[in-house]
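[Meeting: bench + compute handoff]

Bench side (C.D.) handed over the final construct sequence. Compute side (W.E.) agreed to return the predicted structure before the next meeting so the bench team could plan truncations. Sequence as handed over:
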Amino acid sequence: MVRGRAPKLENYDKVFKALHEGPKTWSELRECTGIPERTLTAILDRMSRKWKIAVKRDDGRWALITHERIYESFEEWEQARIHSEKLISAMDIIRSWIRGGVAVWAFIELLKNRRFREILLKSEETELLITPDLLREYGIKPRVWPSKAKYEMAALLLQHIQTGYPDLFRSIAEVVARKRVLFKARMELASFICEKYFKEYDVETRKVIIRLISDEIPPLQTEIKFGFKPKIDFAFSLITDAMRYLKYHPNASMLPLNKLSSLKNLDKKVASHIMSTLRPLAHSKDFIETLSLLIEREKELMDMENRVEGRLLRLESMVRAGNPLNGVCDACKGIKIKPI
């Protein structure tokens, strides 16, 4: 298996577009996409081994795979329809996963609680099991918490999307990947602010590594490592407020710190001291350009997410209208499929 840094998302798009036009050999793909040899090999390896949405045919040409069912009787078709209607009820789990998953939402809510942060910082490393009871302990009302059975249905539904609608699955994977990239970019920017401007405010260098675990099961399971520093949550809020201001004042050449809510909520003396410290940052052209770029990328992501939501809604409507899902899942035993 090819290892190393994951190829850029635009390279995947080039391969998808090329294969949508029809099967192609490796050399033909290399020629029409212009992707470097090792990168193209890595993309085809991932599409065939991990996602199972592409295959190398006997004639040496690569092709996308769409699994369509072959029904030999009305009873078989009816069974597939009932199975599809049962799985489609878990579509809200897929949507939640695209937005970041229940565990990530819960962890962000917990970080807003001072008592939770104090307990968190007593340990160098911890494993955090996200449950509704944990949220209630800190006065947070849990969202509708799906059962393990529903998560299992969501995993099967995702298998149908992966094998029956490969272009939709690719779009979902791209949205999730871009969300992670943007979240990481925000965290790195917050860390930079802490390191450069908040040293005098006792910003400790040690990190608490959190491993989030929830009832979500693969491939929907949330299990991430999260480095948490004191004051970094404030820097994160500061970035969010600054981006909100720049959305409505895109041509601003400086950030009015006194108008940012994250500073308004502080003690006046503390806020005044911090504003004085952050004044060079508020006038930094590079900082404002970085925030503007993040805003642009987040808008692109929102547009992409809306398109994916629309396609998922159409798929859900199609199944509720009585049409079985394309593709296969682990619960589809003994059915015949036709690779296209």
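W.E. noted at the follow-up: The first strand starts at residue 24 and ends at 25. C.D. will use this when planning the next construct.
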